From TrEMBL:
Coiled coil: none annotated. GO terms for molecular function: DNA-binding transcription factor activity; transcription cis-regulatory region binding. This is TetR family transcriptional regulator. Residues 26-86 form the HTH tetR-type domain. Keywords: DNA-binding, Transcription, Transcription regulation. Residues 49-68 bind DNA. InterPro entries: Homeodomain-like_sf, HTH-type_TetR-like_transc_reg, HTH_TetR, Tet_transcr_reg_TetR-rel_C_sf, TetR_C. It holds the Pfam family TetR_C_11.
Amino acid sequence: MTARAREADTRVRFSTLFRRGRPRSIKTKENILSASYELLLESGFDNVTIEKIAERAGVGKASIYKWWPNKAAVIMDGFFAAAADRLPLPDFGTAVEDIYVHASGLCRFISSAEGKMITEIIGQGQMDAALAEAYRTRYIVPRRLEAIQLLERGVQRGELRENLDKELSVDLLYGPIFYRLLVTGEPIDDFYVRSIVDEVFKGFRS
Protein backbone atom coordinates (compact mmCIF):
# COMPACT_ATOMS: atom_id res chain seq x y z
CA MET A 1 0.00 0.00 0.00
CA THR A 2 1.39 3.43 -0.94
CA ALA A 3 1.88 6.14 1.66
CA ARG A 4 -0.98 8.16 0.12
CA ALA A 5 -3.34 5.18 0.11
CA ARG A 6 -2.34 4.24 3.65
CA GLU A 7 -3.01 7.79 4.85
CA ALA A 8 -6.44 7.78 3.19
CA ASP A 9 -7.24 4.38 4.71
CA THR A 10 -6.20 5.59 8.16
CA ARG A 11 -8.42 8.66 7.94
CA VAL A 12 -11.38 6.53 6.90
CA ARG A 13 -10.81 4.18 9.85
CA PHE A 14 -10.67 7.01 12.32
CA SER A 15 -13.71 8.75 10.84
CA THR A 16 -15.83 5.66 11.50
CA LEU A 17 -15.05 5.85 15.21
CA PHE A 18 -17.21 8.92 15.66
CA ARG A 19 -20.75 9.82 14.64
CA ARG A 20 -21.76 12.59 12.26
CA GLY A 21 -22.35 15.89 13.99
CA ARG A 22 -19.75 15.14 16.64
CA PRO A 23 -18.57 18.06 18.81
CA ARG A 24 -15.61 20.11 17.62
CA SER A 25 -13.45 18.84 20.49
CA ILE A 26 -14.04 15.24 19.38
CA LYS A 27 -13.12 16.14 15.79
CA THR A 28 -9.91 17.72 17.04
CA LYS A 29 -9.06 14.67 19.12
CA GLU A 30 -9.74 12.41 16.13
CA ASN A 31 -7.39 14.48 13.96
CA ILE A 32 -4.64 14.28 16.58
CA LEU A 33 -4.94 10.49 16.92
CA SER A 34 -4.95 10.04 13.17
CA ALA A 35 -1.92 12.30 12.75
CA SER A 36 0.06 10.51 15.46
CA TYR A 37 -0.66 7.12 13.88
CA GLU A 38 0.31 8.26 10.39
CA LEU A 39 3.57 9.76 11.63
CA LEU A 40 4.41 6.64 13.61
CA LEU A 41 4.10 4.47 10.51
CA GLU A 42 5.98 6.93 8.34
CA SER A 43 8.88 7.84 10.61
CA GLY A 44 9.06 5.51 13.62
CA PHE A 45 8.58 6.48 17.25
CA ASP A 46 11.88 8.33 17.73
CA ASN A 47 11.21 10.73 14.88
CA VAL A 48 7.70 11.70 15.94
CA THR A 49 7.38 14.88 17.99
CA ILE A 50 4.49 16.76 19.53
CA GLU A 51 5.27 19.60 17.11
CA LYS A 52 4.94 17.29 14.09
CA ILE A 53 1.69 15.80 15.40
CA ALA A 54 0.26 19.28 15.96
CA GLU A 55 1.29 20.41 12.48
CA ARG A 56 -0.17 17.31 10.79
CA ALA A 57 -3.41 17.58 12.78
CA GLY A 58 -3.73 21.33 12.22
CA VAL A 59 -3.87 22.17 15.92
CA GLY A 60 -1.74 23.87 18.54
CA LYS A 61 0.45 21.89 20.93
CA ALA A 62 -1.80 23.01 23.79
CA SER A 63 -4.65 20.99 22.28
CA ILE A 64 -2.56 17.83 22.48
CA TYR A 65 -1.43 18.45 26.04
CA LYS A 66 -5.06 19.02 27.00
CA TRP A 67 -5.68 15.27 26.63
CA TRP A 68 -2.25 13.61 26.80
CA PRO A 69 0.75 14.14 29.11
CA ASN A 70 3.42 13.29 26.53
CA LYS A 71 4.00 12.03 22.99
CA ALA A 72 4.14 8.38 24.11
CA ALA A 73 0.58 8.56 25.41
CA VAL A 74 -0.90 10.16 22.29
CA ILE A 75 0.98 7.82 19.94
CA MET A 76 -0.16 4.72 21.80
CA ASP A 77 -3.77 5.94 21.89
CA GLY A 78 -3.57 6.56 18.14
CA PHE A 79 -2.07 3.13 17.56
CA PHE A 80 -4.65 1.39 19.74
CA ALA A 81 -7.57 3.19 18.06
CA ALA A 82 -6.36 2.13 14.63
CA ALA A 83 -5.72 -1.46 15.72
CA ALA A 84 -8.90 -2.01 17.73
CA ASP A 85 -11.07 -3.01 14.76
CA ARG A 86 -8.52 -5.68 13.79
CA LEU A 87 -8.63 -7.35 17.19
CA PRO A 88 -12.32 -8.01 17.94
CA LEU A 89 -13.28 -10.02 21.00
CA PRO A 90 -14.36 -13.47 19.74
CA ASP A 91 -17.31 -15.51 21.02
CA PHE A 92 -17.43 -18.96 19.45
CA GLY A 93 -19.07 -20.72 22.39
CA THR A 94 -15.97 -22.36 23.88
CA ALA A 95 -13.06 -20.86 25.77
CA VAL A 96 -10.44 -22.84 23.88
CA GLU A 97 -11.64 -21.56 20.48
CA ASP A 98 -12.09 -18.02 21.76
CA ILE A 99 -8.55 -17.93 23.14
CA TYR A 100 -7.15 -19.49 19.98
CA VAL A 101 -8.87 -16.91 17.74
CA HIS A 102 -7.89 -14.06 20.06
CA ALA A 103 -4.23 -15.14 20.28
CA SER A 104 -3.85 -15.97 16.59
CA GLY A 105 -5.42 -12.63 15.66
CA LEU A 106 -2.92 -10.89 17.91
CA CYS A 107 -0.07 -12.82 16.28
CA ARG A 108 -1.17 -11.92 12.78
CA PHE A 109 -1.42 -8.28 13.75
CA ILE A 110 1.97 -8.02 15.47
CA SER A 111 3.54 -9.84 12.51
CA SER A 112 2.18 -7.25 10.06
CA ALA A 113 4.09 -4.16 8.95
CA GLU A 114 2.04 -1.99 11.30
CA GLY A 115 2.14 -4.44 14.17
CA LYS A 116 5.92 -4.62 14.07
CA MET A 117 5.86 -1.15 15.54
CA ILE A 118 4.96 -2.88 18.80
CA THR A 119 8.38 -4.57 18.81
CA GLU A 120 10.06 -1.20 18.31
CA ILE A 121 7.96 0.45 20.98
CA ILE A 122 8.56 -2.30 23.56
CA GLY A 123 12.29 -2.17 22.87
CA GLN A 124 12.46 1.59 23.27
CA GLY A 125 10.31 1.36 26.37
CA GLN A 126 13.22 -0.29 28.18
CA MET A 127 14.96 3.10 28.18
CA ASP A 128 11.90 5.35 28.27
CA ALA A 129 9.71 4.99 31.35
CA ALA A 130 6.93 7.18 29.93
CA LEU A 131 6.73 5.06 26.80
CA ALA A 132 6.76 1.81 28.78
CA GLU A 133 3.89 3.08 30.93
CA ALA A 134 1.96 4.19 27.84
CA TYR A 135 2.16 0.91 25.95
CA ARG A 136 1.42 -1.16 29.05
CA THR A 137 -1.67 0.79 30.08
CA ARG A 138 -3.00 1.55 26.60
CA TYR A 139 -2.16 -1.63 24.68
CA ILE A 140 -0.93 -4.58 26.77
CA VAL A 141 -3.39 -4.24 29.65
CA PRO A 142 -6.51 -4.04 27.42
CA ARG A 143 -5.39 -7.18 25.52
CA ARG A 144 -4.74 -8.94 28.84
CA LEU A 145 -8.15 -8.02 30.22
CA GLU A 146 -9.80 -9.37 27.06
CA ALA A 147 -8.05 -12.73 27.52
CA ILE A 148 -9.10 -12.86 31.18
CA GLN A 149 -12.69 -12.17 30.12
CA LEU A 150 -12.57 -15.11 27.68
CA LEU A 151 -11.30 -17.41 30.44
CA GLU A 152 -13.99 -16.17 32.84
CA ARG A 153 -16.62 -17.15 30.29
CA GLY A 154 -15.15 -20.64 30.21
CA VAL A 155 -15.31 -20.91 34.00
CA GLN A 156 -18.92 -19.71 34.04
CA ARG A 157 -19.87 -22.29 31.40
CA GLY A 158 -18.25 -25.07 33.39
CA GLU A 159 -15.53 -25.74 30.80
CA LEU A 160 -12.66 -24.63 32.99
CA ARG A 161 -11.74 -25.24 36.63
CA GLU A 162 -13.48 -22.95 39.10
CA ASN A 163 -10.20 -22.30 40.91
CA LEU A 164 -8.37 -21.39 37.71
CA ASP A 165 -5.75 -18.66 38.25
CA LYS A 166 -6.70 -16.51 35.29
CA GLU A 167 -3.81 -14.06 35.62
CA LEU A 168 -1.27 -16.88 35.57
CA SER A 169 -3.19 -18.61 32.78
CA VAL A 170 -2.85 -15.55 30.55
CA ASP A 171 0.91 -15.54 31.23
CA LEU A 172 1.13 -19.20 30.21
CA LEU A 173 -0.84 -18.64 27.01
CA TYR A 174 0.58 -15.36 25.78
CA GLY A 175 4.06 -15.36 27.31
CA PRO A 176 5.49 -17.75 24.68
CA ILE A 177 4.19 -15.49 21.89
CA PHE A 178 6.04 -12.44 23.17
CA TYR A 179 9.11 -14.55 23.94
CA ARG A 180 9.36 -15.48 20.28
CA LEU A 181 8.48 -11.97 19.17
CA LEU A 182 11.09 -10.23 21.30
CA VAL A 183 13.77 -12.84 22.00
CA THR A 184 14.11 -15.76 19.61
CA GLY A 185 12.55 -14.32 16.46
CA GLU A 186 11.04 -17.70 15.59
CA PRO A 187 7.71 -17.87 13.71
CA ILE A 188 4.51 -17.16 15.60
CA ASP A 189 2.07 -18.62 13.10
CA ASP A 190 -1.36 -20.20 13.64
CA PHE A 191 0.14 -23.68 14.10
CA TYR A 192 2.33 -22.42 16.93
CA VAL A 193 -0.60 -20.70 18.62
CA ARG A 194 -2.80 -23.80 18.30
CA SER A 195 -0.04 -25.91 19.88
CA ILE A 196 0.25 -23.53 22.84
CA VAL A 197 -3.50 -23.36 23.40
CA ASP A 198 -4.05 -27.12 23.15
CA GLU A 199 -1.23 -27.93 25.56
CA VAL A 200 -2.02 -25.27 28.13
CA PHE A 201 -5.75 -26.02 28.15
CA LYS A 202 -5.05 -29.61 29.21
CA GLY A 203 -4.47 -28.22 32.70
CA PHE A 204 -7.33 -25.72 32.58
CA ARG A 205 -10.31 -27.99 32.01
CA SER A 206 -12.73 -28.88 34.75
